[in-house]
UniProtKB/TrEMBL annotation:
Pfam families: MarR (PF01047). Gene3D superfamilies: Winged helix-like DNA-binding domain superfamily/Winged helix DNA-binding domain. Residues 1-20 are annotated as: Disordered. InterPro entries: HTH-type_Bedaq_tolerance (IPR052526), HTH_MarR-typ (IPR000835), Tscrpt_reg_MarR-type_CS (IPR023187), WH-like_DNA-bd_sf (IPR036388), WH_DNA-bd_sf (IPR036390). This is MarR family winged helix-turn-helix transcriptional regulator. Residues 25-156 form the HTH marR-type domain. It comes from Streptacidiphilus cavernicola. PANTHER family: CONSERVED PROTEIN, HTH-TYPE TRANSCRIPTIONAL REGULATOR RV0880. Keywords: DNA-binding, Transcription, Transcription regulation.
Length: 168
């Protein structure tokens, strides 16, 4: 089954309103929660070297597209600036990010991913992809196809919830 043609964030959220079964919404919420928990615990079990907290991984993923100021990063992650500052402090200590002068405003700094950070992020991504591929191979071909067929709709749901569309 092929993905529907990608739509812009506006198109994804501007669809005609329709009634949604509350029981199905609860089921979706429960499944997403269980899936996140299972991914987190399985990656720690299968790849014990992977100790980077998810909040730090998400910051690295956001910064991988280019350096940002702390305030910009906080806004994109929908976190308080002091929370982001604390996470950045840990990433600085680990050598995964560094501070760079902001060419537009010398009073502020931008945070950028280092080579070590890019390697860590790539390792994390590859470990998750291997884990997902292994899990998908354990379920029926029909269920695997259904999961893959739902990706377009799930991306649109993420956009409707306020996430920025993925960049190519």
């Amino acid at each position: 089954m092929s993905d529907p043609a990608p739509r812009s964030a506006t198109a994804a959220t501007a669809a005609a309103p329709h009634t949604v079964d509350p029981a199905q919404v609860q089921r979706l919420t429960d499944v997403v929660t269980r899936l996140r928990r299972a991914l987190r615990s399985s990656i720690r079990t299968d790849y014990p070297w992977e100790s980077l907290p998810m909040a730090q991984v998400e910051l690295l993923q956001t910064l991988a597209t280019g350096p940002l100021r702390v305030g910009e990063l906080a806004a994109r992650q929908r976190l308080a600036p002091n929370t982001v500052s604390g996470l950045i402090g840990k990433l600085l200590e680990s050598g995964f990010v560094d501070r760079q002068a902001d060419p537009g405003d010398r009073r502020t700094a931008r945070i950028a991913v280092t080579e070590a950070g890019h390697r860590q992020l790539a390792d994390w991504q590859q470990a998750h992809e291997r884990r997902m591929a292994a899990a998908l191979s354990l379920i029926s071909a029909e269920d695997s196809a259904a999961v893959m067929g739902a990706l377009g709709g799930l991306e649109h749901l993420a956009i409707a919830l306020g996430e920025e569309p993925p960049t190519a």
